[in-house]
Specification:
Blueprint (H helix, E strand, L loop, with lengths): L5 H7 L9 E6 L1 H5 L8 H16 L3 E6 L7 H6 L4 H25 L4 E5 L8 E2 L2 H9 L3 E5 L9 H11 L4 E6 L4 E2 L11 E2 L1 E3 H7 L6 H9 L4 E5 L5 H6 L6 E4 L1
Parallel strand pairs: 1-2, 1-6, 2-5, 3-4, 3-5, 6-10, 9-11
Antiparallel strand pairs: 7-8, 10-11
Helix pairs in contact: 1-3, 3-5, 7-9, 8-9
Length: about 250
Amino acid sequence: MVLCRLFFHNNTSRTMTPIYHRILLKLSGESLAAEQGSGIDAQRVADYATQIKEIVDAGVQVAIVVGGGNIFRGLKGAAQGFDRVKGDQMGMLATVINALAISSALEAIGQPAQVFTAIGMFPIGEPYSKWRAIDAMKAGKVAICSCGTGSPFFTTDTGSTLRAIEVEADVMLKGTRVDGIYTADPEKDPTATKFDRITYDEIYNRGLKVMDMTATVMARDNKLPIHVFNMDVFGNLRKVMAGEPIGTVVTL
């Protein structure tokens, strides 16, 4: 049975003063699978929805970009012999499935949401535009932007950076399964140490695998701060929005 942790929202949202007004939350597709490894874990999605609703109730405008790696990844498909363009388009469709799952979980707990698609897909989602997404957020809806950029050869990290800049978000929150940026992969190197803050140029010079380089450079050039944190720990989204020192902040 899926448990929506509404007690968390009811007890805390009224006392939180968010440090950001409008955010773009990038969610990993793989994280939606939780321990099952692939597909969509209903409890994980419900936990995400509960945390997102809490910050919306605290006055935060929220847009989301979600990956599709729990269902299909274009690069992996190309390595298996799929045409790269068609493989990336299959990955875009995977992000739509995830977007629908998140919107369903949000609406189930009374949080309105609107799915936008970067490629025409009516009536599954509304064609994305900056102004319609901003209008949705101002109306109290969560704007879920799917299909990445809508073009092949670009990752959903690039898509999330692009959407964050377009909707004039204060920050891009990158929810991952690790608690920040490390000197090396902490799952492989036990000596890896975490950065509390780091610059875009340091990421490039150290060759850190935070996002693809296109997304990193786009964020740097548009002065978009990025906050990397572990979204899989229930309550971490609230901590980030309350200004608690978790994760890693990327700035100029």
